[in-house]
Design a protein that fits this description.
Strand content: under 5%
Number of domains: 2
CATH topology of the largest domain: Rna Polymerase Sigma Factor, Chain: A
CATH architecture of the largest domain: Orthogonal Bundle
Number of helices: 10
Shape: globular
Number of strands: 0
């Protein structure tokens, strides 16, 4: 019961407590955002191991910079910006093959699906992953971040463009994915 009550703590108070060195508040912030940070890193890097490392580095970077967080954006947006920068740095450091799996497709693979359905879904997932690698980075990021629930304004800010450009990149990316998947 205590853990569920702690999960309901509002983010500003968690941030304040984390800045003061409250380890429980820091851990709760990490738990709240861990999946999303990992998924953003995975969309950028396309490699699960590299994404785990980049996500860990992103949190380390964010927690070190937490005293400098001014609150001009939401903590989530600020953390995703750090994650994007960290993942891009990891991408420049590595020569691994780049893929961009969508977590959304993986969520479709239900545990209760029959083997034939799983095979079809797995094949479609692989096709989609391959198609995503063929998109320009800004389109791939716009799709990825939109699936994470970010607004076009947040996406534009994170990608260094306007809200309108984020919308265009998203819609062009979706259009191109449809062409590549047909």
């Amino acid at each position: 019961m205590v853990a569920s009550v702690a999960m309901l703590a509002d983010e500003p108070s968690l941030l304040a407590r984390a800045r003061e060195g409250d380890r429980a508040a820091t851990e709760l912030l990490v738990r709240r955002h861990l999946r999303e940070v990992y998924e953003v890193a995975l969309h950028v890097l396309g490699d699960r191991d590299a994404a785990e490392d980049a996500a860990q580095d992103a949190f380390v970077n964010a927690l070190r910079a937490l005293p400098r967080f001014r609150g001009e954006s939401t903590f989530r947006t600020w953390l995703i910006r750090i994650t994007l920068n960290t993942a891009r740095s990891w991408g420049r450091k590595t020569t691994r093959r780049r893929e961009s799996p969508l977590a959304l497709v993986e969520d479709v693979l239900a545990d209760d699906a029959d083997p034939a359905s799983r095979a079809v879904q797995s094949t479609e997932s692989e096709r989609l992953q391959h198609a995503l690698t063929r998109l320009p980075e800004k389109q791939r990021l716009a799709i990825s971040l939109r699936l994470q629930g970010l607004s076009y304004a947040e996406i534009g800010s994170l990608c260094g463009s306007s809200e309108g450009a984020a919308r265009v990149n998203y819609h062009l990316g979706i259009k191109r994915l449809r062409e590549l998947m047909s």
